[in-house]
């Protein structure tokens, strides 16, 4: 996408061109029902009244996109940077920063967080919800720790599943296509006088990218199976219970990427595939005290299990107790010795250093010459397990016709278990209080204020506020000014890592042992502070009834201080709060139901990023956007055409056109839909990283879905 006129001018011009012809006829019509969103403040609000920017991906859009993964859907959100670490590891961040982890974005399924606090990540490919079970996705584009706590630093993605009451009957779907695509879905929904149930089973499989940068086969396929049970039960006119059970198991391939530290080791180990298992359960009690007062209590439990064992090879000297002691004294010196050990051995002298360092280094060189250069292979267990228990109470109260309050408290317990990363088990406890007050000061002025207090066992406490002023021209058209602050707590891996490898089953005993400790050991600083964000936003949201057109324009300026941005490697672990970033720019989105048959959707974002760490700045595409045209041709035929593009993410351009054609057939009381999707890349570049390459620039897959 070329950089043309000022993006600010383009956004404003877009609003003027579309708005002016219909402004006089539309602004004073108040009779129609208003769409509502919930994610922004936990209060039901019209989009014009929200204290921030919202994007809603509805059922029609989700189906028409033909997307197989949630991450692909988020390309429809302005300002969302969507890429790939590998074929089974998507990367999604709002405006940018870290490419490999969603460290600064909260992701929810029906209000339950799936952000993993132990390793600071969201496993997009492993989220235990099928695309067919999603009703809509609400994305709050901006900081929202006020409503959802730390880690909602830059955005909130709330995946809302179909209610059991809307899922009656049987659905079966099969998808097949190129690159090993083999997906399936089946669900059964039923109801009784006071309740409803939906049970769904699904699976997904593909081969990932074809080739890496060297032209070799890329080992990054995925295979997973999921099961989901959702039940809603009315207890009486005022009370109801909703509960869910979700499980997922699968395999994500990982290539062998270990590079031996020591000279002369050529033997290669085995691939390090991950067996991924997720389990989640939640129970929510809803109580409607009266039309002005309601509350709920929700409890949930989740468990993430990543089993990863593999076999690696290096020199026997890797397990030297003396080299381990040298690493503990001076890691830089120990690494310099290890990587140049042949040269130092040939010279007969260790590298320059302190007398103590040189004395130990001389012992290591002696061990190297006495058989330490022998290649040995052993088993490495890099498995991780994380568990979360969460309890939340929320109270929603209309104090008067012009004043609403939502408040609540949350308790969360997180435990991470890994012999490699934590030398056992590490846990954390978080308490949170939150509140949001909405005051309709007059017919046109809406003032909203909120705050969140959070206390975390490992990182301390924080208080973050938000204040917003909305001027409602009428209930469907609003201008907004928002100031908010947000924080992100350093995760367990960043702050408290205790990283070391116990290698078992060695091919040859070293120092009289069949298992030994690798010499590199890393400890986290333990005293990292929270990252802090200040955000300013000006915006407009309008819904033109006669034209069925929704328009949102946003201008933003965000600053993050105390960022933890350094690469966190076992042999180079330098975590600090010394980094910062600034993001400024504009975003716009337009959704226009041109007629009963045609729907047009456009998004565009210009993001100017400035970062103290150059890696953060590379992970923001200055220009990005999407365009979609949905068409119902009649007689059961429909089509959708989408364009996605960004100027450069991590230095690589991305442009793609997706075309989906579907035919709907009525078979008595059943309905059958046959659909084909073609994805065509318009560029010739890898996706996000150099190893992510396909042999062909196009992808075709077909689906058949039967409902009865």
UniProtKB/TrEMBL annotation:
Bilayer topology: Multi-pass membrane protein
Listed InterPro entries: Beta-barrel_TonB, Beta-barrel_TonB_sf, Plug_dom, Plug_dom_sf, TonB-dep_rcpt-like
Residues covered by the TonB-dependent receptor plug domain: 49-155
Transmembrane annotation, as ranges: none
GO molecular function: siderophore uptake transmembrane transporter activity
Domain TonB-dependent receptor-like beta-barrel intervals: 243-646
Gene3D superfamilies: TonB-dependent receptor, beta-barrel domain (2.40.170.20), TonB-dependent receptor, plug domain (2.170.130.10)
Main location: membrane
The keyword rRNA processing is annotated on this UniProt entry: no
Single GO BP term: siderophore transmembrane transport
Keywords, in A-Z order: Cell outer membrane, Membrane, TonB box, Transmembrane, Transmembrane beta strand, Transport
Keyword Membrane: yes
GO cellular component term of the entry, any: cell outer membrane
Cellular compartment(s): Cell outer membrane
Similarity-based family: Belongs to the TonB-dependent receptor family.
UniProt-recorded name of the protein: Iron complex outermembrane recepter protein
């Amino acid at each position: 996408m070329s950089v043309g006129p000022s993006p600010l001018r383009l956004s404003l011009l877009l609003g003027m061109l579309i708005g002016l012809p219909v402004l006089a006829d539309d602004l004073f019509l108040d009779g129609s029902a208003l769409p509502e969103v919930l994610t922004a403040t936990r209060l039901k609000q019209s989009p014009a009244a929200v204290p921030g920017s919202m994007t809603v991906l509805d059922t029609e859009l989700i189906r028409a996109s033909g997307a197989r993964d949630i991450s692909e859907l988020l390309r429809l959100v302005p300002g969302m940077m969507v890429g790939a670490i590998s074929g089974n590891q998507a990367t999604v961040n709002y405006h940018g920063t870290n490419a490999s982890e969603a460290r600064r974005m909260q992701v929810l399924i029906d209000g339950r967080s799936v952000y993993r606090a132990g390793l600071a990540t969201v496993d997009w490919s492993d989220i235990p919800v099928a695309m067919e079970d999603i009703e809509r996705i609400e994305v709050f584009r901006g900081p929202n720790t006020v409503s959802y706590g730390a880690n909602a630093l830059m955005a909130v993605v709330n995946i809302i599943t179909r209610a059991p009451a809307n899922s009656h009957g049987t659905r079966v779907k099969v998808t097949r296509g190129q690159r090993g695509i083999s997906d399936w879905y089946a669900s059964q929904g039923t109801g009784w006088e006071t309740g409803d149930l939906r049970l769904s089973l699904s699976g997904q499989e593909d081969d990932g990218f074809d080739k890496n940068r060297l032209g070799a086969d890329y080992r990054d396929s995925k295979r997973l199976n999921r099961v989901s049970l959702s039940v809603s039960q009315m207890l009486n006119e005022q009370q109801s219970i909703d509960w869910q059970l979700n499980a997922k198991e699968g395999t994500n391939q990982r290539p062998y990427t270990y590079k031996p530290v020591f000279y002369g080791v050529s033997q290669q180990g085995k691939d390090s595939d991950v067996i991924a298992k997720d389990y989640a359960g939640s129970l929510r009690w809803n109580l409607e005290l009266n039309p002005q007062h309601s509350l709920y209590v929700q409890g949930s439990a989740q468990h993430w299990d990543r089993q990863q064992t593999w076999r690696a090879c290096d020199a026997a000297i890797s397990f030297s107790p003396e080299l381990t002691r040298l690493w503990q004294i001076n890691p830089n010196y120990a690494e310099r010795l290890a990587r140049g050990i042949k040269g130092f051995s040939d010279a007969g002298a260790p590298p320059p250093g302190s007398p103590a360092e040189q004395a130990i280094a001389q012992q290591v060189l002696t061990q190297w010459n006495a058989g330490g250069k022998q290649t040995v292979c052993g088993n490495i267990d890099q498995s991780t397990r994380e568990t979360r228990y969460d309890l939340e109470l929320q109270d929603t109260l209309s104090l008067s016709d012009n004043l609403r309050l939502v408040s609540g408290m949350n308790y969360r317990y997180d435990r991470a278990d890994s012999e490699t990363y934590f030398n056992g088990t590490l846990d954390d406890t978080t308490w949170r209080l939150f509140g949001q007050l909405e005051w309709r000061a007059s017919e046109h002025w809406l003032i909203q204020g909120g705050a969140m207090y959070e206390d975390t066992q490992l990182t301390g406490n924080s208080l973050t506020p938000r204040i917003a002023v909305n001027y409602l021209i009428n209930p469907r058209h609003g201008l907004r000014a928002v100031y908010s602050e947000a924080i992100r707590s350093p995760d367990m891996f960043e702050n408290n890592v205790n990283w070391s490898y116990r290698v078992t089953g060695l091919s040859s005993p070293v120092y009289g042992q069949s298992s030994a400790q690798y010499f590199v050991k890393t400890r986290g600083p333990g005293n990292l502070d929270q990252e802090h964000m200040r955000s300013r936003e000006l915006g407009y949201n309008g819904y033109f009834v006669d034209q069925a057109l929704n328009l949102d324009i946003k201008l933003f300026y965000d600053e993050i201080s105390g960022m933890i941005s350094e690469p966190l490697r076992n042999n180079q672990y330098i975590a600090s709060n010394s980094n910062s970033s600034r993001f400024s720019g504009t975003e716009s989105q337009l959704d226009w139901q041109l007629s009963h048959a045609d729907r047009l959707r456009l998004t565009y974002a210009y993001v100017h990023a400035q970062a103290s760490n150059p890696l953060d700045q590379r992970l923001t595409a200055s220009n990005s956007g999407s365009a979609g045209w949905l068409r119902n041709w009649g007689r059961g035929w429909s089509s959708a055409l989408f364009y996605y593009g960004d100027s450069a993410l991590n230095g690589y351009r991305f442009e793609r056109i997706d075309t989906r054609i579907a035919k709907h057939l009525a078979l008595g009381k059943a309905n059958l839909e046959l659909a084909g999707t073609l994805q065509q890349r318009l560029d010739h570049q890898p996706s996000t990283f150099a190893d992510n390459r396909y042999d062909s620039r196009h992808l075709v897959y077909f689906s058949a879905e039967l409902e009865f």
